[in-house]
User: Fold these one by one.
Assistant:
Number 1:
Amino acid sequence: MAIAAVIFDFGGVITSSPFEAFARYEAARGLPANFIRTVNATNADHNAWARLERSEISTAEFDAAFRAEALALGHDVPGGDVLPLLAGDVRPGMVAALKACRAAFKVGCITNNVKSEEDIGWGPSVHLILAEFHHVIESAQVGLRKPDPRIYLMMCEALGVAPAECVYLDDLGINCKPAAQLGMTAIKVTGEAQALADLAAATGLRF
């Protein structure tokens, strides 16, 4: 089936991965490598991170809940320290690719995020990029988060396309898996150059 839509994750795809910021934070505070990711991966569907991204708790409640989970794993990390690490740096090549895809296909964005943009450092430049998408689904607004298959189907319905007509990009394999199972061409993003090459191969566009 021909490609009709390209669906992007935001953090780690359009912007640099928050994992890079996590690593800098961990190194600066003498924490074990990947400690924040370990906290986020523990009880992954019901922990503080998951509940915040579904807007089930406030950022203030997240601060305490994440800290408790981190302490249970041996280190003191307040949730309020983690949220500002999410913003990342915009990848100009990915923004250019988004605009090229928009000219040829429908484009959507599915992002696991939080309601308070101030907590994660989203500024005007991010909103300009989000305006390029035909449709944006934010987990904090709809009460669903990736990798729940329903959020991908919600995007397909909004864009008026079948999953098999979609290319999907995400920096997390756990989020790419349901997209692929639904029939999408899933691209796991490990860096900008790799993402652009794989997206070009999937779409036939040149970036």
Number 2:
Amino acid sequence: MLYPYKLVVFDWEGTIADPLGALVDYLWQEANHQGWAAFSQSQVRHHLLSGVPEAVKQLFPGFSEQLWHATIERAERMVSQKRDQVFLFAGINSLLQQLQIANITCAIATNKGQHSFEKALNNSQLGPYFSLYRCAGQLHPKPHPAMLQEILDVCQLKPQDAVMIGDSHADIEMARCLNVDAIAVDWYSSGWHPDKIGAKATVRTIEQLSALLGMHVSSSGEKIEQDV
């Protein structure tokens, strides 16, 4: 089977790892346990764009103000306890497995520092899926094209063989500098418009992303995957 790319370069935080994953998972479980409504994790994530207090009010409409504050405090304690855990956006693990089976090279270009990233990568257990990575500190941070250029050089591939996947303007601008296709992810449905700065597409589900890569992945009910 022919695939559109030989190399897929991912951003890390906000693309593979959910920086608010622990909070999303906690509020999702609590909201559905309380039975106010059948919320999906993507709905919880979207509510969090307005801040934790507003999200709690939307997710627990029957709570008194005292219970809202208590829920926020419990959420903050829980997030603090799980600060070293890595929460993956639903379906990411399956997508990486399929890319590996298809012999498509995967890499990471992240503005996280090398030590911080390597710790997160180790905790996530995703290391075997990535042939290489470049971090801020090793090279100029995004949107400077140095990280992506070096990944292309190491893999001995041309810009048309690769795609950059990320959640920020810096990811898209970096790819544009090298004439590499860019796919923007918007897992939080924030409504940003990366197409205006050159993104080939904007996706809001893992199904949409996987289809653009020639794969077929389901989010399996949208539950966040947590590292083991």
Number 3:
Amino acid sequence: MKAVVGDELTVKGRHQGDVERHGEIIEIHGHEGSPPYVVQWQDGHESVFFPSADTVASHKPARKRAKS
């Protein structure tokens, strides 16, 4: 997986009844977008994360800067 800071992660549950986890990548410690990532999860906690096959990354488009 290759990612950039700001990408959103969704970790799908592996078993019936598991809830999805959602977070945002705030740091990348691997080479050229590779894991490990520091992720801030929806509940506010942060952790070092190595994605597995049940993880999906979504790229958020960069915000356009206002002209000054």
Number 4:
Amino acid sequence: MLSAIAQELHIPTIERHIFLCADQTKPKCCDRNLSISVWEYLKQRIKDLNLETKVFRTKANCLRICQAGPIMVVYPDGVWYHSVDAQVIDRILEEHILGNQIVQDYVIYAPDSCMIGSL
């Protein structure tokens, strides 16, 4: 049963996992409604770009930065982004996820040894 769920979610082909701080119990980094709209936009853009078999997404209650949110982290790259809105999502998906270039304008942290692979 678990194996079937993993297959249905495309777990074997996932190359990146995006976590977005959204729908917080106690909103600190940004307005809760903003975070929810950004989350909905992220889901739609992943679908629009046909990335559902390569990019997994998870809504995180809190990523503990608690400023300049919504906060997003992309794994396995370990790149953390701040002030994520629809425009920033578009840039991260196009430049980082598809183009393998970190979006420096919004980086909180990126490992020095960050080796971005191609999708």
